Automatic annotation (TrEMBL):
Pfam families: Usp. Belongs to the universal stress protein A family. InterPro entries: Rossmann-like_a/b/a_fold, Universal_stress_UspA, UspA. Residues 1-148 form the UspA domain. This is Universal stress protein. It comes from the Bacteria.
């Protein structure tokens, strides 16, 4: 049925439920699991007149973001392998276009299913980003399983 399942995660509670479902699905279908998260690229400044950070501060902030993202997907891969999934990969994409990064990863990794939560982060961050899940649903040529 499925040979490679991609699960997108942002570490939210609902996203964790999607991860568990994706692991179970990979086990049921004897599929490989690819976990992906998108690390946002740190901006230099948000608008003219904003406080500018030094290059070193920007690099440190980006390195912190990248490390946290890598730990998140490594945890997913380790959990999948511990439960018996035959192969699990952990991928961090650096982008400010979350949905496009997920779709690109699914294509590049030759996945035949994308699993993700109906929504992730809350508050202003979600409003600013818009519905990434909706974007994946409407632009992906790969089937998408959305969990609520």
């Amino acid at each position: 049925m499925y040979k490679r399942v991609l699960v997108a995660t942002d570490g939210s509670a609902l996203s964790e439920q999607a991860v568990k479902a994706a692991i179970d699905l990979a086990l049921l279908t004897n599929a490989d699991l690819v976990s992906v998260t998108v690390a946002h690229i740190e901006p230099v400044g948000y608008f003219e007149g904003s406080m500018m950070l030094s290059q070193r501060d920007i690099q440190e902030s980006q390195a912190h973001t990248d490390r946290a993202a890598q730990q998140l997907v490594d945890k997913v891969a380790a959990s999948a392998l511990a439960k018996g999934v035959r192969s699990a990969q952990a991928i961090v994409m650096r982008s400010n276009q979350v949905a496009e990064a997920i779709i690109t990863t699914a294509k590049n990794q030759q996945c035949d299913l994308i699993v993700m939560a109906s929504h992730g982060r809350r508050s202003l961050a979600r409003l600013l980003m818009g519905s990434e899940t909706l974007h994946v649903l409407t632009h992906s040529h790969i089937p998408v399983l959305v969990l609520r």
